[in-house]
Amino acid sequence: MSVLHVLEVEALVGLSVFGVAYGAITLVLWKLGRDSERRRRERLLREPAGRD
After folding, report:
1. Total count of domains within the chain
2. C-alpha to C-alpha distance for 10 and 18, rounded to whole angstroms
C-alpha cells in the first residue's frame, strides 16, 4: 500500500468517526431540548391562568 492510500484511508476513518460522534451529540441535544420543552408546556398547563 502506498503512503497516499494509507493517508486516504485514515482520513476516511477519521471523518467517519467524527460524523458518528457529531450525530450522537446532536441527537442527545435534540432529545434534551424536546424533553425540556415538553416539561415547560406541562408546567404551563398546570399553573393557573394569569401567572407568568
Report:
1. 1
2. 12
* Separation of first and last alpha carbons in the chain: 67
pLDDT for 51 beyond 70 = no
Dig out the grid coordinates for 35 from the structure: 424533553
Residue 34 lies in a domain: yes
In the chain, % helix, strand, coil (3-state, to 5) comes to 85, 0, 15
* pTM score over 0.70: no
Report residue 44 as a C-alpha cell.
Answer: 404551563
pLDDT tens, 4-25?
A: 999 999 999 999 999 999 999 9
